[in-house]
Amino acid sequence: MELTEAEFLRCYNVSLYEKPSFTVDLVIFTVRDEQLRVLLVKRAEHPFKDQWALPGGFLDLQCDDSVENCAMRKLVEKIGIRAPYLEQLKTYGSRERDPRGWTATTVYFALMASNSISLEKDQERVRWAPVQGEGVDKALAFDHAHILADAVVRLRSKLEYTHIAVHLLPEAFTLPELQQIYEIILQQPLDKSSFRRRVVQAGMLEEIAGKLRDGSGRPAQLYRFRDYDRKTFFPRSISRYAR
Amino acid sequence: MELTEAEFLRCYNVSLYEKPSFTVDLVIFTVRDEQLRVLLVKRAEHPFKDQWALPGGFLDLQCDDSVENCAMRKLVEKIGIRAPYLEQLKTYGSRERDPRGWTATTVYFALMASNSISLEKDQERVRWAPVQGEGVDKALAFDHAHILADAVVRLRSKLEYTHIAVHLLPEAFTLPELQQIYEIILQQPLDKSSFRRRVVQAGMLEEIAGKLRDGSGRPAQLYRFRDYDRKTFFPRSISRYAR
DNA sequence: CCCATTAGTTATAACAAGAAACTATTGAAG
DNA sequence: CTTCAATAGTTTCTTGTTATAACTAATGGG
């Protein structure tokens, strides 16, 4: 598609480039009470005052060395700890998404074990909202519902062929616990022996020798994730009818 | 007294927060002369004057409605046509990546058929550089070598489980041509019958009835990509020893 | 001491992929 | 006109992987 000369000139003549506002937002997932949950905060200020939104805010050029640093800073500010998993999701930028004008937000998504967080303090303004389908049961500010949907799709998709689900559990976990995480997020039951074969063959878990977890039946072997840096991939997607 | 949202917006000063410079860059891939190639431009201005760089530039708040629109505009400016495939890669932002100070760039990657482009006009300043390994045989400006490496990794990875390779070919193509695209990018030979089985079973190609492509041997059946919108996934990765 | 409960393994049948040999269709050489 | 080289496309068979279900194992509680 060729640009007309008029179109070209309209764009070209703007020599003074105004900058968009730039923010970083976070989609922080955890699994708790057998539900995938996302952290939401109630906005204190306009626009969208008192509506639920993804946590985030403006980049601070003085203290943030990089966009990722900014995301990590905001994560610490919101929930007080470093997330075991932080990945850039996507950047959303347009004139429309914020009534204040042109903004861009780079969204990160984080995974954490539910035992590593306690948010009892301020239930009114910060909440772990259960994810149903690809969203939550609340209206969200800005385009955050759309962003959250993208994040949920990405999480499910990555679950199919990577090991990121281990980051939703504490360091020591059992295979049935890990399988349950998959089942909760993918919303379908998985076969026990296939799941174990898959996970064991991928070779990224190691037994914690002698340690077991008690329950009402036979105690389960505890494992830990072996190599946090190595990115292991499954050769096939984990759910039988993926897409 | 509380402000209403309308009052808040009236008083809101957009320039309160210092903002980073915001650019959009493009990694435009094609396959030509049996090589994966990326479009590079020689920088006309400082910094990194006369070094090769990914095409891109500043967002124009007046004419770009969104980041993606900006990417499409720049694509049209650089090569004069709409790309059949455009996907956001990642956003890179830090104080270090540009000597002028804090900048962020949102990078898109595009795929196109090599027949749809002709860049004979300005070989000195615009070039389709062959990709070797995860980069090119030239020093690149800014952090563009790093960005390019990420883009190549993403391209290879997506080739394993999606159909995006069809966008590197013209609308009508043969299965051997498609297989060759995979082999060039993945840098390994693929089995003919397995490849055909896979691609046909995925069901996203349709024969162009009666149409054949001539060559030195038996003419090959021409196909077209059936559903440009539907995202089809392979259940397994296409290369045997993926990762 | 038996049973419910959960963990973990094994056997098998169905299925998918890799490899190689096979057939098919064209152009060019002689 | 025949043969051969070249490329397209299919078939067959072997091998490897997955789903399923039945099996064994280990624990606590009645």
Which value, in Å, is the CA radius of gyration of chain A? Answer: 21 Å
State the shape of chain A. elongated
Unreliably modeled segments of chain A: 1-15
Written as H for each helix and E for each strand, in order along the chain, the element string of chain A is HEEEEHEEEEHEHHEE
Which features characterize this protein?
homodimer, 243 residues, alpha+beta, Nucleoside Triphosphate Pyrophosphohydrolase, Arc Repressor Mutant, subunit A, 2 domains, eight-stranded mixed beta sheet, three-stranded antiparallel beta sheet, 11 strands, disordered N terminus, DNA-binding
Model description:
The structure is a homodimer of 243-residue chains. The first copy, chain A, starts with a helix and ends in an 18-residue tail after the last strand. Mean pLDDT of chain A is 87; it is low at 1-15. The longest helix of chain A is centred in the middle third of the chain and has 18 residues, at 144-161. Chain A has two domains: 20-159, Nucleoside Triphosphate Pyrophosphohydrolase (Alpha-Beta Complex), CATH 3.90.79.10; 163-225, Arc Repressor Mutant, subunit A, CATH 1.10.10.10. In chain A, 26% of the residues lie in helices and 29% in strands. With 243 residues, the first copy, chain A, is α+β, with helices and mostly antiparallel strands. Chains A and B meet through helix 1 and strand 5 of A and helix 1, helix 2 and strand 5 of B.
